[in-house]
Specification:
Elements (H helix, E strand, L loop, with lengths): L12 H6 L13 H4 L8 E9 L15 E5 L6 E5 L3 H12 L5 E5 L9 H4 L4 H10 L3 E3 L9 H9 L22 E2 L3 E3 L10 E6 L2 E9 L15 E3 L2 H14 L4 E7 L3 E2 L15 E2 L1 H8 L4 E6 L5 E7 L5 E7 L5 E10 L11 E6 L8 H18 L2 E4 L15 H14 L9 E4 L20 E3 H7 L5 E8 H10 L13 E2 L3 E6 L8 E8 L9 E7 H4 L6 H4 L2 E8 H11 L15 E4 L6
Parallel strand pairs: 1-4, 4-5, 5-6, 9-11, 11-14, 14-16, 20-26, 24-28
Antiparallel strand pairs: 1-17, 2-3, 7-10, 8-9, 12-13, 15-16, 17-18, 19-21, 20-23, 22-26, 22-27, 24-25
Length: 601
Amino acid sequence: MPISGSTGRRTTALAVAAAAALFASMVLPATAEAHGRGHDKPKYEDLQLLAINDFHGNLEPPAGSSGTVTEIDPATGKTVATPAGGVEYLATALRDARKGHANSLTVAAGDIIGASPLVSGLFHDEPTIEAMNEIGLDVTSVGNHEFDEGSAELLRMQNGGCHPTDGCYEKGRKFKGADFPYLAANVTDEKTGKPLLKPYWVTNVRGVKVGFIGVTLEGTPNIVTAAGVQGLGFGNEVTTINKYAAELKKQGVNSIVALIHEGGLPASGVYNYDCGAAGAGVSGPIVDIAKKIDPAVGAIVTGHTHNSYACMIPDPDGVPRSVTSAASFGRLYTEIDLKLDKRTGGIVRPTVSAANHVVRRDLPKAPDLTALLERYTKLAAPIANRATGYISADVNGRGSTALEKPLGDLIADAQLAGLSPADKGGAQVAFMNPGGIRADLVYKASGAEGDGVVTYGEAFAVQPFTNMMQVKTLTGAQLVQVLQQQVSGVNDASPKVLQISSNLHYTLDLNRAGAARVLVDSIRLNGAPIDPAAGYRVAANEFLAGGGDGFPAFAAGTDKLVGASDLDLFNAYLTGNSSASAPIAPPAADRIKVIAVGQTG
């Protein structure tokens, strides 16, 4: 039976059960009235929310460590890595979860698209939007990666239409856009001051109005290329949510849920980790945000950090409130059960419960998603399956927990090799931002290509942004500042350690504070100390070169030369430096000497 007030966009019974009403949450104090004591047969309405975040176009089951979930084996009590994810399995998991729930909504907290593997990224993420329509996504906030291709492209994702440059990908088939609303309450047009997209969405759950407010992190401009956020302003998460919560209450919407593309860092990587009393087991930006959001917001769904948690964090009144995140790549979904009071229109906060569930690959595949995936895989196959290089073992990037990652070193080496010729920029050193490494290179064959073969599709999954490379001249003093900015300024609390080409070495002492953690006397380029007054030609992708990720020293560089894309350089390096008989071995990742906390040099 459909939820009253639904959009009616889906016609199957399954989809109707998963669609239509949205948004929920308002504080009800834990009093006798809130629990219904002293009243005759109070009427409540149950609402199930199924939440995902940071899907990043991972239609196919993610490979390597990106495709596993850490959990405790109930039989042995040991920590194990369980294969998880893949849109065919996610669709089945969500559909199974909805069974028996008259009111169920599927929501997301941003980065549904962007930084996507080739089968989605090659088609500007149209396949992922179509897949989200199929699985019954009802609403999502924007994330920072929704702006990777700019606001006009994001609006196309919402409203449909063929790509302005590449056109339509199949004859007779026009991209229809998202069936669900993208929410961007804190993203405004700098000229008009108005939100780029809807700030919230309200639906009716059998007589109870439920509203969702969607925001992305305020710092989005610092982690997206300047072109992607041109002309846009990004407001504070708390201020924005509280503003629109007040507006919703004036409209009689007393059940409110916030979808926030910002997250936390749990103390454990186990997917069902218990954060403990008052959320003490989770840290990061979302903790401070959650503690300041209006108590009228009854539940908070988060993302961005790619972690999993289902925590209770106190609101400004000290009342525990559910704050959740479902890792990334469709490996988990969060089930949040709400009870709505039909008399007050609010969420009965003490009854809210939430838990993460693994999207296991022993589930039956959803036939409609299999058909969608096969259609786009066939279109992409001529490009995706082309061999581009060979490796002798796994080269870990996204799956490495070390500050210096083997795949990061390999990428930096590729960039230096491609841009060191005088006519290509004369680069003397190359840097790669760790967040731009989106996957691992896995030795085991993903298809029919054979073990150790790197296909174009696999290389694309590692470097999906197709950022253009730049070579700039930095003084030696500025080059030192780049290294110091890894661990100071906006990166002081959460260092962003750049991946470096093989000719640069230095020591990082984590026992020190701020910029002092970089031991300047230890820095050697081609075996020689850095001359503060000399000029050095430095290669970096356009995001880093523009000062992204908190590196303003890059932006101060001069004599810019724009080179090939990072993906083209990576593929060229793999092709030119490996063969079936002489594959590339994983770099030793020994360019940065790290003195850990508690150790001595």
